[in-house]
Amino acid sequence: MSNEFKTMGKKHSTENILEVRHLKQYFGKRDFKAVDDISFSVKKGEVVGIVGESGCGKTTTGRSIIKLYNATSGDVYFKGQRIVAGTRSYTDAIALERRKSRDTVNKLKKAGKTDEIRAEKERLSAFVEEQKRLIQEAKNDHKNCIRLYRERILRGIAEAYDEKEKAAAGNTVLLEQLKKERAEKIKDAEKENIVTRIQMIFQDPIASLNPRMTVREIIAEGLTIQGIKDKDYIDKKVYEMLEKVGLVREHAGRYPHEFSGGQRQRIGIARAIIMNPDLIIADEPVSALDVSIQAQVINLLNELREELGLTILFIAHDLSVVKYFSDRIIVMYFGKIVEIAPADELFGHPLHPYTKSLLSAIPLPDPEYEKKRRRITYVPDQAHDYSQEAPVLQEAAPGHFVSCNTAELEKYRRSLAGTQERNLKN
Fold first, then answer.
1. Beta partners for 198?
2. Backbone angle region of 330, left / alpha / beta, with phi > 0 → left and psi within -120 to 50 → alpha
3. Please, what's the b/e burial string for 40-75 (b: 16 or more CB within 10 A of its CB; e: otherwise)?
4. Alpha carbon 44 to chain centroid distance?
5. What is the DSSP-derived secondary structure letter of residue 258?
6. 352 or 325, which is more confident?
7. Does residue 36 have a pLDDT over 80?
8. Given this model, what pLDDT does residue 279 score?
9. What is the helix (H) or strand (E) element at residue 270, kind and residue range?
10. How far apart are CA 76 and CA 38, in angstroms?
11. How many CB atoms lie within 10 A of CB 188?
12. pLDDT tens, 45-89?
């Protein structure tokens, strides 16, 4: 498969465009934990792959980031603005602290310590008020993230142009030019919608396209929702997007059922990039396609990444695809992150037993290799002993994080050190 893919670029900045902090997504009255306290960041221009078996929470993570689901708890920051904020952690903290305080007060009552009881009640009241303030802030940020982001951009414009106009005092021509620039930037900022800067490419290219709409209507829908009414402008943008994704303008008048699976996925990509996004969440965009078409779609995404400066969160269960497309890989298991590492590092030196299990399942078109390939089975109770200390995500090597306790961390570091020594000898 590697020969079918073009060489992937590895250029990206050190600036985090996306930060996910302690994200939780629970469903139902019994709190099914689809995503359970995950944290990671994505740098601008980077491609980050999320892998894991079906049901591990990959798609739910993407849908929570783009606000298709209301997060149970945790925060998502995009371009420095909090766009997702769950409140469950705050309400749980209040309930826990009240139970602890009740036990403390009961003990103090038995001891007859009146002053301490009063102090404990005051402490609890202050804690509850602080959590309620945080809840209100979270709700405000979640609901009003678009307005708050616009206000932030407008403040930045005002500060920048106030300084420029001050420096240009006395130069009438330059001042007039700066005022025009300021007015244009303010006009653009007032239309800015931070949420539409994230777009999603869905897994099923059939179900994600409305069969009653033409390709033109599907691709232009985002522009129409934003209030753009200029038909000539819309047509021009639609034709431009079609050509970018390898289709032709004659396709604009057709319906989704007239296209193949690969062509439908290209239409989905065109629908996403017409909004000029900074981040694309690609939810298994090639899993429903033939292998030869997969290579074409991956190459298309890579070309668009280079041309448009896109950042991509690439969700997949096909590790072969992820390896050739991603800069870093996040491995998920049962709603949790178990390992994060650069792609080459993860494939060369996997640490977590579940990651090793996934890698051992990758088939290769080599009969001799397949005869000898040993499948590793991951059984958590046998692989770990967390009776004394629970695992947390820790850095075993620079940029290489793994979910483990202290004893496992030391073992993983020794394993990496041993591998490095062998490499130096060879």
1. 279
2. beta
3. bebbbbbbbbbbbeeebbbbbbbbbbbeebebbbbb
4. 12
5. G
6. 352
7. yes
8. 95
9. helix 261-273
10. 11
11. 11
12. 999 999 999 889 999 999 999 999 999 999 999 999 999 999 999
| pLDDT score, position 6 | 43
From the list 75, 72, 63, 64, the residue with the least C-alpha distance to 22 is 75
User: Six-digit token pair at 312?
Assistant: 């991509």
The C-alpha angle with vertex 89 and arms to 85 and 94, in degrees rounded to 5, equals 130
**If DSSP codes are grouped into helix, strand and coil, which group holds residue 394?**
strand
Query: Looking at residues 305-309, what average pLDDT do you find?
Result: 89
What are the pLDDT digits (tens) for 340-369? 999 999 999 999 999 999 998 888 888 888
161, two tokens: 């142009």
Pairing of strands 279-283, 311-315: parallel
Which residue carries 């078996």 as its tokens?
53
Taking residues 98-127, what's their average pLDDT? 93
Identify the pLDDT of residue 285. 87
What are the tokens at 246? 């390898």
pLDDT band (50, 70, 90) for residue 4 = very low
Give the number of residues written for the chain: 426
**What's the gap between Cα 100 and its chain centre?**
36
Going by C-alpha positions, the residue among 336, 337, 347 that lies closest to residue 395 is 337
Comparing 257 with 422, the larger pLDDT belongs to: 257
Nearest to 321 by CA among 354, 303, 299: 299
**The Cα angle at residue 159 between residues 153 and 161, in degrees rounded to 5:** 100
Phi-psi region of 275 (alpha: psi -120 to 50; beta: other; left: phi over 0): alpha
Domain boundaries, the chain: 105-189
Dihedral over alpha carbons 315, 317, 319, 321 (to 10 degrees) = -60
Residue 396: count of CB within 10 angstroms of its CB:
22
The beta-strand segments (E) located in 276-398 are 279-283, 311-315, 328-333, 336-342, 392-397
Please give the torsion angle defined by the CA atoms of residues 59, 61, 64 and 68, in that order, rounded to the nearest 10 degrees. Answer: -10
Give per-residue pLDDT as tens, 5-32.
Answer: 443 445 556 789 999 999 999 999 889 9
Task: Write out the E strands in 117-189.
Answer: none
What digits encode the pLDDT tens for the residues 289-299?
A: 777 788 888 88
Closest CA to 412 of 354, 349, 361, 344: 349
Mean pLDDT of the chain: 90
> What is the bridge-based pairing of β-strands 400-404 and 73-78?
unpaired
Phi/psi at 290 (nearest 5 deg)? -65, 155
Q: Residue 373 half-sphere exposure, CB side, CA atoms within 13 Å?
A: 17
